[in-house]
Specification:
By secondary structure, the chain is mainly β. It is built from three helices and 23 strands. The protein has helices spanning 2-12, 21-26, 74-80; strands spanning 28-37, 43-50, 52-58, 62-71, 84-88, 91-95, 107-116, 120-127, 130-132, 139-143, 148-153, 157-161, 166-171, 175-179, 184-188, 194-198, 203-207, 213-218, 221-224, 230-234, 238-243, 249-254, 258-263.
């Protein structure tokens, strides 16, 4: 009753009150939101010190940047990040430039960027998970630690994470994945040059039936689907040879962990 009276009083005084029960319960609030008019074929650059990054793709010629803060005094802590989102030429740039260490901050931030599907993206974060929707363009992801997940990517793909699992739903151009530790799961819609390195963690690569490729595999254990007709040298921990008539190279190296090449 007291809360309702307070809201009515503020309304009388001309103060607009926006109440989101879910956000209030989680302590989450939008601290930044801005839309941009963009065109297909442009580029996104994200460089933030820490925090999860989610890139959603649409068919519309419009981009939007939303930052959500969680925790104590999120708005004040957000100001310390010196966050900017700018569109210059063909590039939309989202970045933070903290004036001093954020150590001791009780707030955390997540970044959501919505862009057209026909876009290129370069994402760099000190720590935090990264997810990217289906993208008709090139994609580069570099995170100190955190999982990485992508939808279908038609252009060159590069993923580097100090630790964290990696999942690529569908790659159709040259792909490189490097993780200090964490499982890797890649599906290829067609055979393209693929390089996967992980210090520890299982690796699964799914390829089209009847694929032609050259395999160079080194890991804890190696399994190649019999349906792929592998021809070459195969031992418990490594395999070199070809499937089909050979062709583009699929190279997988894991310090420890199983490697599986299967039909998608």
């Amino acid at each position: 009753m007291l809360r309702l009276s307070l809201v009515l009083l503020l309304a009388v005084l001309g103060v607009v009150v926006l109440v989101s029960p879910a956000s209030a319960q989680r302590g989450r609030e939008v601290v930044f939101q801005q839309a941009f008019s963009v065109r297909d074929g442009q580029s996104l650059s994200v460089n933030v010190g820490s925090g999860s990054v989610r890139v959603e793709t649409t068919e519309r010629g419009r981009a939007e940047v939303v930052v959500e803060g969680t925790g104590t005094n999120a708005r004040a802590e957000f100001a310390r990040l010196r966050f900017t989102a700018t569109l210059s030429g063909d590039r939309l740039t989202v970045r933070t430039r903290p004036q001093r260490s954020m150590r001791g901050s009780r707030a955390s931030f997540s970044y959501v960027v919505r862009i057209p599907r026909r876009f290129n993206a370069d994402i760099d974060t000190g720590s935090g998970s990264v997810s990217v929707g289906a993208l008709d363009g090139t994609l580069s992801v570099d995170t100190g630690s955190g999982s990485v997940e992508t939808g279908a990517v038609t252009g060159r793909l590069s993923i580097d994470t100090g630790s964290g699992s990696v999942r690529v739903a569908d790659a159709s151009a040259a792909t490189r994945i490097d993780t200090g530790s964490g499982s890797v799961d890649v599906t290829l819609s067609r055979i393209v040059p693929l390089s996967v390195e992980t210090g520890s963690g299982s690796v699964r690569v799914a390829v089209p039936r009847g694929a032609d490729a050259t395999l160079d595999l080194d890991g804890g254990t190696v399994r190649i689907d019999d349906a792929l007709g592998f021809d070459g040298r195969r031992e418990r921990r490594e395999a070199q040879g070809r499937i089909g008539r050979g062709g583009e190279r699929i190279s997988v190296d894991t310090g420890s962990g199983s490697i599986s090449i299967s039909v998608r």
